[in-house]
Amino acid sequence: MAVDDLWYLKKRGLDGERRKSARYGRGKRWRVRYTDDEGRDRAALFAKLADAERYDANTRADVSRGVYVDPAAGKVTVADYFADWRKLQLHVDSTAIKTEWAWRVHLAPTPLGRMAIAQARRSHVQAWVLDRSKMLEPSSLHPLYAYVAGMFKAAVMDRVIGFSPCQGIKLPDLVVAKRYIPTSDQVHDLADGFSPIDRPHAQGRHYRAQVYVAAGCGLRQGEIWGLELEHVDFLRRKIHVVQQLKTVAGRKPFLAPPKTQTSVRDLDLADITAEEIAAHLQRFPVKEVEVDDLTDPRRPRRRLAKLIFLNAVGRPIHRGSFSKPWGRAVAKAGLPEDYTMHALRHYFATLLINAGASVTTVQLALGHANPTITLNRYLGLWPESNEQVRTLVDSALRRPVSTLKQIRA
Predict the structure, then answer these.
(1) pLDDT tens, 22-60?
(2) Which is it for the CA torsion 207, 212, 213, 215, positive or negative?
(3) Contacts of 249 (CB under 8 A, 6+ apart)
(4) What CA–CA distances, in Å, run from 363 to 237, 270, 295, 367, 378?
(5) What's the number of CA atoms in the CB half-sphere (13 Å) around residue 51?
(6) Which has the least CB within 10 A, 143, 267, 364, 394?
(7) How far apart are CA 264 and CA 37, in angstroms?
């Protein structure tokens, strides 16, 4: 590295005096030449010698320590860097759609999005959070901010910027919604809301058995819709979860791997659930439908699938077409308007917990990625009262009555 004086030539005159260059008196006088961490020749201009020497020393140290940040790289806008960042993420389809929405709606049109990424400071990010909080609920703003913070973290790791401005950012508090867990009677009422037992041909009859699969096996909505005939073993009373039917905007429903690795599981099939599935198959015999199969991302294919649950016109179920019959059934059952099928999964979890199932048992039955998720969602439901603690201690430490009499004597 070197600091050059651009106003004077390096070679002196015959009289030993320094000779002025053609640039004398024009532009910045001092130039720092250096080689960056990728072996490229770089240069920076300064008006004062002290600034040039300081930059030269600092840059030499940064390159040597492997923490050099290219000033030119930081000129890209936040929105442009986010657009490139999200294309490199291993996001599932639903998350990819959300990050595209985050970029297009909530970042690109904003002052933060138009700003050079090297200029972004904590105050800019906080102002952006405040602005977005005026139009988004906390439950939507938190994941949106997580995408932006992840992008800035990646920029630091790529040495595009020296630090992340997402430090000490205050987000609005999340409002923890009350989890509504139905009673057994309400589960039956919900099923009857689709198709009462005495009216097997009522509108919505295609969806009735799904209520008992969700409440009796704890399957996620996509896992239910992705069930094929071979996945239900009536003889051994087992149901095999190996895939899900995903519905994302802009494309037809398709088969995909379950949400997590632990979501691939075998579950016991209760008699009432088996009976409802059998009745459903009797009313609606399985017909093969053509669907994209992405269960193996390396070998996508289109195949005929024997899906157990289809919509009223015999096609794979889409959330949009399912929402109306679900809403009618919820209203008929007298359940809250925002009641979702996921509440039936909570019902299944509470059944296991109240029966004395361990955290691991509930985790594996629900297909959670780890026990921590299960504990965070259902910790308050496990019976761990002080009375139980006292009983355990008494049973371990209490001496026989005969021994106590001897001591007291």
Answers:
(1) 888 888 888 888 777 667 778 888 888 888 778 777 777
(2) positive
(3) 97
(4) 20, 19, 23, 6, 10
(5) 9
(6) 394
(7) 46
CA 53/CA 2 separation, integer angstroms: 9
18-28 burial, b at 16+ Cβ within 10 Å, e below that, comes to: eeeeeeeeeee
Name residue, tokens 């019959």.
325
Contact status, residue 64 vs residue 89, Cβ threshold 8 Å: no
CB 277 within 8 A of CB 308: yes
Which residue, chain included where needed, has tokens 């600092």?
58
From the number of C-beta atoms within 10 Å of its C-beta (0-12, 13-18, 19+), residue 103 rates as: buried
What is 118-178 written as a DSSP string?
A: GG--HHHHHHHHHHHHTTS-HHHHHHHHHHHHHHHHHHHHTTSSSS-S-SS---PPP--PP
Tell me the β-bridge partners of 34.
42
Distance CA 409, CA 407 (A): 5
Residues in Cβ contact with 332 at an 8 Å cutoff, skipping those fewer than 6 apart: 189, 192, 193
Which is more confidently placed, 386 or 402?
Answer: 402
Residues present in the chain in total: 409
Helices (H), 134-284: 138-157, 184-194, 208-217, 221-225, 271-283
Q: Give the containing element (helix H, strand E) for 301.
A: strand 301-305
Which of 375, 370, 144, 97 is CA-nearest to residue 259? 370
**Which pairing describes strands 254-256 and 289-293: parallel, antiparallel, or unpaired?**
parallel
The yes-or-no verdict on residue 113 having pLDDT over 80 is yes
Token look-up 């093969």 returns: 288
Q: At what angle do helices 138-157 and 122-133 cross, to 10 degrees?
A: 160
Residue 41: both structure tokens together: 């020749």
Neighbours of 182 (CB within 10 A): 21
Q: 212: which residues sit within 8 A by CB, 6+ positions away?
A: 187, 191, 272, 273, 276, 277
Q: Which residues pair with 3 in a beta bridge?
A: 32
- The average confidence (pLDDT) of the chain is 83
Does residue 69 contact residue 162 with C-beta atoms inside 8 Å?
yes
